[in-house]
Amino acid sequence: MEEFKYLGTNLTNQNSIAEEIKNRLRSGNACYHSVQNISSSRFLSKYLKIKIYRTTILRVVLYECEIWSLTLREERKLRVFENMVLRRIFGPRKDEVTGERRKLHNEELNDLYSSPYIVRVIKLRRMRWAGHVACMGEERGVYRVLVGETGGNETTGET
After folding, report:
1. What stretch of H or E contains 3?
2. 67 near 55, Cβ under 8 Å?
3. What is the CA radius of gyration of the chain?
4. At residue 64, what are phi and psi to the nearest 5 degrees?
5. What is the pLDDT of residues 96-155, one digit of tens each?
6. 56: which DSSP letter?
7. Single pTM value for the model
8. Residue 92: phi, psi to the nearest 5?
9. Which helix (H) or strand (E) holds 31?
10. Segment holding 11, helix H or strand E
């Protein structure tokens, strides 16, 4: 089988998740736009806007991320998406020299956003899932996949 859908996630025989991440980011963007009126309100604190981001948008994007094996290109796409949302939440800054408003630089976002970044969250979830699977018994199929057992006898080739 070349591709199948498992729990809402498209899995391929090449373990490529580029299309899946593209779909997740599209869904996350749609989710952001659905709460844009709230997140752009001046009456809400930045803390509350960050809370909305982490509890709604991030959950949509990271659904079933424990099974993702990310490449650097995919990590960059996720990081770009997160920076875009954070820039919208924190808004532009007034430049001290020119007095003009400008978008925040990545370093400034790092200083303002104290939570773990999206790629770090994915890696933490993957480690937590691996720990959970490691505690399962040897009879469970997912445990055998984690430890690299094929289910057959390697010496005789029997299943």
Report:
1. strand 3-6
2. no
3. 20
4. 60, 30
5. 778 888 888 888 888 888 888 899 999 999 999 888 888 887 777 777 777 777 666 555
6. I
7. 0.77
8. -75, 165
9. helix 18-34
10. strand 9-12
